[in-house]
Amino acid sequence: MPHDRFEVLFVCHANLCRSAMAERLANRSFADRLGVRGSRLAVSSAGTHARPGAPMHETAARVLRERRAYADRFTSRLLTPPIVAAPDLILTATREQRAACVSLVPGAVRHTFTLRQFGRLATSVGSMGTWFPARRSIFPPGGSAIVMADSPARRLQALLDEIASVRSRLQPVPAEDDDLPDPVRQPIEAFRHCADEIQRGIDALIDVIATP
Description:
Layout: E1 6-12, H1 18-34, E2 41-47, H2 58-66, H3 81-85, E3 89-92, H4 95-104, E4 112-114, H5 115-126, H6 144-148, H7 152-166, H8 175-178, H9 188-209
Helix pairs in contact: 1-2, 1-9, 2-9, 5-7, 5-9, 7-9
């Protein structure tokens, strides 16, 4: 992680709704909760089946504006091997898209998760196993590497390292617990619910890396 910088990529199907909202909600949340320190966290998005250069879905943009997130000047990107290879962390809307990322760049498997999966694991590691009390002993004691890191970017790297060390030892969850449904062609309430789910995952991440 050169120069104390950490790059996060959000991925969905068309890069018009879920990953687009995630990119802009993460940018807003990093700025609101981390201030200038959050500027070292770079955020982008792409779609496994995106049509490059398309604008964000208008309802997704409306929901972002409701949440004080910047919705303008967005264009979709098609997921490619160079895009997958660049970030430190990849968060996808579904398991299928997680698999697509890994198929493009097999080495990305260590740092590719669904958004819901990563939020669950971040909460678990950050709280020393609150979500998995029966397996408390598999988590690093006190999340000390995260606490000791001197910036949000370095804490995020420490969080990723600790998650990677325990990930294979956790029991899988049902697909519906990991996959974020696509709100496209649904009423605005579905977009709002999707944004709520995205924000929940982002907040779980920030709750850990914002440690003083």
